[in-house]
Each structure stands twice: as C-alpha cells, then as structure tokens.
C-alpha cells in the first residue's frame, strides 16, 4: 500500500494521464488502457485501494466528477447538430431506451438469475452508455459526422434517463410490494424529475445572462461554471437521488444553445478538466474493485447475460427504434454494436446494490459483479472494434489527414493543388467572394465564410482536417485564428504565414509573432513574398530522398531561393517545415518545395505574361 493519501492522489493522477498518453502514442482505446491500469494497480497487485483510502469522501468525489463530465458533454449538444439526425436521436433515446430496458430486464431475470424486482432496476440502468466512454472512442475512431453525432447525443442524453429509469423501477417495485401502497412517493419521483429539469434550465439561463451582461468577470467565468454545476447536481440530488444527472444535463444543453461566445471560449478549459476527471475517476473505480468481483465475472450466467446484452439486446433495440429514421443499414449496424458502459453504470449500480440489499433483496449482492462484467467486456470489445468496424462499414474518415487553408490567394491555391497531388485533402476558406474567384476558377475545394463564424462551425465538416494554415493578408487575423483553434488542433498542427515585414516597427513584430500558431516555413517569407514567387513563375517540385540522394545532397543541389514547404513520410504523415518545429527529413520522405522555374518554364511564363498584357 502507498505511504499516504497525498501520495495515492499523485499516483492516481499520474496513472490516469499516463494511460491517456500511452493510448495516444500507440493508437489504443484510452478507456481500455485506463481500465487495465486500474485493475493492475488495484485488485491484482494491491498497490492502491482508493475507496478504502478516501473513506466517506470517495462517493462524493465520484459523484461530483460525474456531474462535471456529464455537463461538459452536454455543453457540446447544440440543436443545430440535429439536422438530419434529430429523428434518430429522439427515437433511440425514447423507443430504443424503452425496448432496451424491457429486453435487458428479461435477460437479467432469465439468464443472470435475478429476481424480477432487481432485474427491472438494473435493466433500466444498463441502457446508459455515457460520455466517459463514448467521447474517448469518438476522438480516436474518426467516424463520419452522422454516426458520430448519434453516438455522442445518445451517450449524453441517455445517461440521466438510465439512472432515472432505475429509480423509477425501484419506486414502482416499492409501491407494488408495499403492504399499504401509497402513491405519494411515485408523485414525488415525477415532481423531483421535473424540478431537476427546471433547476438546470434556470441555472443555465441565469448563468448565461450574467455572462452576457458582464456581471461575472472573465477570470471568474470558468470557476463559476464548475461551482454552479456542482450546486445544480447537489441541489437536485438532495431532493431525489440520481436526478442530479438530469439537472446538469439540462443546464449544459441550455447554455450550449444560448449562443454565448464566452461559453465557446471556456469549452476547451472544460474539455481539459473532463479528460483529467475521466482519467482519474476511471482509475479510482477499477482500482477499488475487489478480486472476488473480478473472478466471479467468468461464471456462466454472467457471461451469458453480457453476451446477450451485447449481441442481441443492443442491436435489436437500435434496429427497431431507427426504422424509418433515414439512417443507413451500415450506420444502424455500427450504432447497434457500439454501447460501452462506464462510470455512471458503476457508480449508480453500487448505490442500488446497497438500497436493494437493505430492502431485503439478497440477489442484489451480485449487481457489482454484473455491472463490472458488462463494463469491462463492452469497453474492451467496443474499444478495439470501433475503428475496424467503421472502416469495414465505410463509416470512418479515409485517406490522409487534410489541411484547412484560411485565405484565398495565388499561393494557397497552388499549395492546395500541390497537396491534392500527394492525396492530402485541402479546403480553402475565405469570407471574401472576390478573393475566392481565384479558387473557383482553379477548381480547388473552397468554402465561403468566416473561419471564426458560428455558421462555419455548423456548416463546414472539419473532421477530415487535422492541420490549419492561416494565410490571409491580415496578419493580426491570422494570429487570432491560430489562437482560437490551438486547443482544438494542437500546437504542432496550427501555422500562420510569417507576420514579419521590413516596413513593420519592432512592436508590431513582437506582438503579432508571439501570438497564435507557429510561423509557416520561415519568418523570412511573409505571404506577400510567397505570392510574389508564385506570380514570378516559381513552381512546386516533389523529390524523394534516397540513400544515394539524401537531404544534404538535396540542399546542396537546390537554388538558394528555394523554400522547403512540407514533406510526406512513407506512412503518409504530413509535416510542414517551420523554424519553430525542426523537421528532419529522412530516407524515403517526399519533400515538396517552391523552386525557381527552369529556363524553359521561365520562357513560357514570360510568353503568358506578354499575352496577358496584350489582351488587357
């Protein structure tokens, strides 16, 4: 065991973030790595036991973390996303949830051997998937937009519904089995659920109004949101257990659809908090399990129950619910398979295991084992299969990661054409229809709109693009774009045209160059120079490095005015040249550079210019 509680907290944090890094580095499902890590340090080797170490603080910490995670997920649920999938999400969250509840309860009774009362409680709970497990899978699998939206909305909306169904089932059972039935408790359940929704909506509207009117300063906005989320969850949960999840979901959706710019600014902060909480809480939960619980999951009735839930109950409920919704067969197949359970299932089942046992249901003792079995099997199966299945069903983003080029000008047009030749998709974005005339004439993909506009976020599918290059004629705007999208694309994937210019004063250089992304290519080549080289006939050339012709030989042969633009690794990985991120070409890399024209090309260029002058 660890020497102190502080040391254990440190270990949990390191293991959680370390698991996320390992998953990113080796392209593994993060949730799987975290589950295995927690089991190894907890029940298998006995290094830590968070539940024992934290004592009475264990459950409140888990509950508060789940509330923040669920709120952060619901903050991404903009109604504008529902175009084309609204009917599917509604049907899955209502009809699909009901079918899954009934079928899951029947399976729990006839296969797992639970009493009807316990089966209907746990059947309601197990319809949940949840953002704690869905979001990490969606980040790594790169699904196409429609199935990704369906899985994301379902995971967040159904989470509180599953918990409420479990509470509702328990209240119904208590009412039916009571010697002197009293419907007051049932009415309290519906009243508490309504109160939770109204409370979440009211707090969301109130917080949004305070943000819009400036009643909360910028430096307090993120802390205020976290505190209000915990208040919202606790206030609703004190009225009736598990309604807090419904309340924070309502609050998040309300804020997400108010169109408040500061909410968008804080979204990245809350995503970081969510990643940290998911990492640490999942380690805590799996490390707190007992060895007996793990060993019992291999009993025949539990294995049979899990297999039926995965291969029969989930697919059947989704296929029935999505009839006539417009989803293709492949999309229904993918959504019908992907349903990993996570933190909410583990925490809420622990609560009901205690409540049902106190009510005299002896078979409730198996709930923790049953829940863990469903969680671990679905996490492993769905975590490792989502990428493969998405590719098989043609529902994953294929090809190399693309590039968003902000600014339409002769250089970005030619760069877009160059990227297309190496099978890298590129999209030019500009808010000037006049500037886009070059793109339209050249036949390259383009989007008419402002990169910072909310409309662009809603209408432009940015999932295929991993790199962003800001190359407009407004250097301050380039820096603003890079600053805005740094959290989303990552510091190594965001670039801007060099802001340096001989006519600038030192202050302008210092401010603009230090704000935003990395300088593209070399600070000696601002956008006007790049455009000038294109107009003077410079061409894009591709060269493959070999053992006989390495990078040093390549540089020695090139004209001094050559600009190294980017390289393509044999794996297909794209790397842009930048002074701030040293790119070291290796054997087998394809280097694309902007080079002076040959004599023949110069003659052709001169003739074209002459003809153009005569025509004018």
UniProtKB/TrEMBL annotation:
Its cellular-component GO annotations read: plasma membrane
Where is the protein localized? Cell membrane
**Membrane topology, from the record:** Multi-pass membrane protein
Main localisation: membrane
Q: InterPro entries in the record, alphabetically?
A: Cation/H_exchanger_TM, Na+/solute_symporter_sf, NAD(P)-bd_dom_sf, RCK_N
Domain Cation/H+ exchanger transmembrane per the UniProt entry, residue ranges: 22-392
The record lists the membrane-crossing segments as 6-24, 31-48, 60-77, 89-108, 114-135, 156-179, 185-207, 219-236, 242-260, 272-290, 302-322, 334-354, 366-390
- Ranges for domain RCK N-terminal come to 403-485
Query: Does the keyword section mention DNA damage?
Result: no
Give a yes or no for keyword Membrane in this entry: yes
Ordered alphabetically, the record's keywords are:
Antiport, Cell membrane, Ion transport, Membrane, Transmembrane, Transmembrane helix, Transport
Q: Name one GO biological process term.
A: potassium ion transport
Task: Return the protein name.
Answer: Sodium:proton antiporter
The organism of origin for this protein = Oceanobacillus profundus
